[in-house]
Amino acid sequence: MSIRISAEHVVKKYENGKVTVIPDLSLVIKDGEFFTLLGPSGCGKTTFLRILAGFNTLEGGRILFDDTVMNDVPAQKRNIGMVFQNYAIFPHLTVRQNVEFGLKQRKISGEELKKRVDEILKIVKIEEFADRLPDRLSGGQQQRVALARAIVISPSVLLMDEPLSNLDAKLRIEMRTTIRELQKKVGITTVYVTHDQEEALAISDRIAVMKLGELQQIGQPMEIYLRPYNTFVATFIGFSNLFRGTVRMENGRPAVVLNEDCVLHVPDLDESVEDGQEVIVSMRPNEFHYADRGLRVRVISSTFLGQNMSYKVAFENALAVELEDENELTEPMNYLERKLNAGDTACIMPMENKANVFTADGARSLIKGVTIYGGE
Question: What pLDDT score was predicted for residue 131?
Fold first, then answer.
């Protein structure tokens, strides 16, 4: 039976309280949900996962499984299945023996043991390898063994820490599909840690984006991608070009001015915006079209990516916010108007209905309805 997980004002510190990794984190993970913790290295996502597992203590706050406070419950009594980055399967045991291990620890034997192991081996599609040792398995097959061993014990919660990071790109896509389908089939509340944005978007019911131990936004994948809460989320989930702009009231309605040739009438701007207010506008690389007026760009380089042409560009005015990466445009090959080469210039216009607008410091969205905790 799966459960709801609640974190209430969780605080985690290291080095005798000198280093705060998680200053104050609260969230609710729904019963049966596939919930992903996403963020760069060092953001606290694995630390929080270890808190859920009972491997790390707390310096403040509470963790609840349904209505039961888990702070002082040892890891072995939390009924958790865990899949690690390095799989952690026993090299001297066969696939079947690895999967049996947790059940034997729970004193399950005989026909019940065989029935449950046979069933899970079939579900994860490794029944034909039951008598093999791990060193005779591929990386993907070893990952399936780790999944089977974690799920066969019927845990209330499944925790997964970067489980696909050691696989090649093609196998990662295959395995994330397998994990998603398996989780839906067995219905276990799952908390998944990754730094891979595409992986998180493909696999999750909801995503929590983290930075320096703090939640930046929680929401469904499409919600977070299309309507990020701040510029960190906008630039971390995929790529976004950022521009400085100013609000200008026109006939009682706000518009965002990037320059006099590029005035955006963005739908659903919050009523709080004021005439003359400085803002930041974010646009995805594919959210522009060629125009007679707008923003002038110079192409630095072009790359053919099969379905798309990707351009690294520089904007010919000071509007663009400087990022670690160069600004970027993409155009689907089937809609390619003209191929641009290094040194070429073009005039482009942002798509108004795609624009996201933030406060001048990038801390929060100025689009109606966009919040940290998002929709359900």
Answer: 94
